[in-house]
Design goal:
- This protein is of the alpha/beta class and about 350 residues long.
- The chain contains 18 helices and 5 strands.
- The protein is globular.
Length: about 350
């Protein structure tokens, strides 16, 4: 980087200004950075502590912010994950507001299980996405302002939600329920034992027992569990016999999310180039997801692909560029000047 700075005549003043400070920390503080917080400490965007304070918006950033599927191709180290982190912060902000419509962010970034498979299908991708999305949706129903949201669902959607939680989350496992009970503050050991006994034995009486205990409302995550436990086991077993194709499964899930006031599920696809498998294998892995246009255009979903520029030529034959114009970008001198 220093050689690049010196080679740019217009930025030579920045390098000269840097030399007038006794050390890098003093220079950074003069530019407005917090003491002890350097933008050069981390090379992985997900671990940046204050990225939003020095993130430089590229010309395309407004486009990838839109609630629709987008493809961003950048060279390695040029900011793919930084763009992803900034979009994730927007979804987190909508969740913190608590009320109104929210955006549910879902990471699809762990591809180890796929890369070890011989044949990769769309269903493999859907399985991983739902295993992230379902717990996130369940957690949304446990925040204080949404504790009763499951009870507002129709009986059919409640059964569907119970089915998704059972298949794609551990939230209804006895051990997980026990963990939730022990998270509740202000319960005596005897009340905790009573609560666990009632949960495992009766399930549907859980809400009544909670209502008799003096517990801060903000800690009643078990309300959501109780709502799901009130679904009869034979109803869930009936749902088990329904084998749905991947697209129908995702459609069924959005019916629940819309009813729970989720505006959009944003799926972040990133970190594909962090496996020593070669770019050809990455293309093979992504192909089932990228070529399924009905899924990528499905209402209430936005798939955000942050991909290495190195696979663009191999991937573009599978990409419907007329429906999803790919965004490619190379850092320009002006960008570097703005950054400095």
């Amino acid at each position: 980087m220093p050689s690049q700075v010196v080679s740019m005549g217009s930025s030579l003043g920045v390098a000269t200004a840097f030399l007038s400070f006794p050390d890098a920390d003093t220079w950074l503080q003069s530019l407005g950075f917090k003491p002890g917080l350097s933008p050069f400490d981390e090379v992985v965007a997900e671990r940046e502590k204050d990225l939003e304070s020095y993130f430089i918006e590229f010309p395309y950033f407004n486009e990838i912010q839109k609630p629709k599927t987008t493809f961003l191709f950048l060279p390695r180290g040029a900011g793919k994950s930084a763009n992803k982190v900034m979009l994730e912060k927007e979804t987190d902000m909508s969740l913190k507001q608590g009320e109104g419509e929210v955006i549910l962010g879902v990471d699809h970034t762990n591809f180890y299980s796929l890369l070890t498979k011989e044949n990769i299908s769309l269903n493999d991708h859907i399985e991983l996405i739902l295993r992230k999305a379902v717990p996130e949706l369940f957690n949304l129903t446990t925040i204080p302002s949404r504790l009763n949201s499951i009870n507002t669902l129709s009986p059919a959607l409640r059964r569907d939600f119970a089915w998704f939680v059972k298949h794609y989350s551990d939230k209804l496992d006895p051990y997980s329920i026990q963990q939730e009970v022990y998270r509740i503050e202000g319960l005596s050991e005897s009340k905790r034992r009573d609560l666990l006994t009632t949960t495992f034995k009766f399930g549907i009486d859980l809400l009544q027992l909670i209502s008799k205990t003096s517990v801060p409302a903000g800690n009643l995550a078990l309300n959501a569990i109780a709502s799901l436990l009130s679904i009869k086991p034979d109803e869930i077993e009936h749902l088990d016999r329904q084998l749905l194709p991947p697209i129908d499964l995702m459609t069924r899930f959005t019916q629940i999310t819309r009813a729970l006031n989720v505006q959009c599920i944003t799926v972040f696809i990133d970190r594909t180039d962090e496996y020593n498998t070669g770019f050809a294998r990455i293309v093979t892995m992504l192909k089932p997801l990228i070529e399924t246009v009905p899924l990528l255009e499905m209402p209430s979903y936005a798939f955000k692909f942050f991909l290495p520029q190195e696979i663009y030529n191999e991937l573009e034959i599978w990409l419907r560029k007329d429906r999803f114009p790919p965004i490619t970008y190379i850092w320009q001198t002006k960008d570097l000047r703005d950054l400095l």
